[in-house]
Write a structure and sequence with these properties.
By secondary structure, the protein is α+β, with helices and mostly antiparallel strands. It has one domain: Umud Fragment, subunit A (Ribbon). Strand 8 and strand 9 form a beta hairpin. It is globular. The chain starts with a strand and ends in a 7-residue tail after the last helix.
Length: about 150
C-alpha cells in the first residue's frame, strides 16, 4: 500500500520520536486485510532485530515510496516482502529501509491488534497460500465487491 512521498518528513519524524501513527493505506496490495477508504492502521517504530515472518512493516523503497507489506522471509541479506494481494516477492530490503510495524487495524469503528490470535492465524495461513492468492482474491471479490468509503 503506497503513501504519498510528501508525507515523508512528518510520518518518519513521528515514528522516530516514538509516536504511534494512524494512517489510511492507499491501493489494493494488502487486500483482503486492508481496503482503502475503509481501514486505518496504527504503526509504531519497531526493534528491527525482532521483526519476523508475517509482520506488516512500513518501509521506504529505493525510489522513495512508502509501502505497507508483509514480511515473507528474513535472511542475512535482508527482508523479503509481499503484499497480501500479490504473489511476487520483493527483496532483499535493507533493514534501514524499515520505518515501523503495523500494530493494529481499525475498521468500522472497531480496532484489532496484530497480536490477536485470530489475526496471527490468518497471517500465517495467508502466507502459506501465496501461490493461490489470485484465485482466492477473485472469489473473495465476487462474494464481497470492493466498497470504498468516501
Amino acid at each position: 500500500m503506497k503513501e504519498k512521498t510528501t508525507e515523508r518528513i512528518d510520518i518518519e519524524m513521528l515514528l522516530e520520536d516514538g509516536k504511534i501513527i494512524q494512517i489510511k493505506p492507499q491501493g489494493y496490495s494488502m487486500y483482503p486485510l486492508l481496503l482503502p477508504g475503509r481501514d486505518e492502521v496504527q504503526i509504531e517504530k519497531t526493534d528491527i532485530t525482532k521483526v519476523k515472518r508475517g509482520d506488516v512493516l512500513l518501509y521506504r523503497r529505493q525510489e522513495g515510496i512508502l509501502v505497507l507489506h508483509r514480511v515473507y522471509r528474513r535472511t542475512k541479506d535482508g527482508l523479503y516482502m509481499v503484499g497480501d494481494n500479490q504473489t511476487e516477492i520483493e527483496g532483499p530490503l535493507a533493514l534501514s529501509q524499515v520505518r515501523g510495524k503495523m500494530i493494529a487495524v481499525r475498521r468500522n469503528g472497531k480496532s484489532f491488534s496484530t497480536g490477536n490470535p485470530l489475526y496471527v492465524i490468518f497471517s500465517r495461513i495467508w502466507l502459506i497460500l501465496r501461490p493461490f492468492r489470485p484465485v482466492i482474491s477473485q472469489i473473495i471479490h465476487k462474494m464481497h465487491p470492493f466498497r470504498e468509503a468516501n
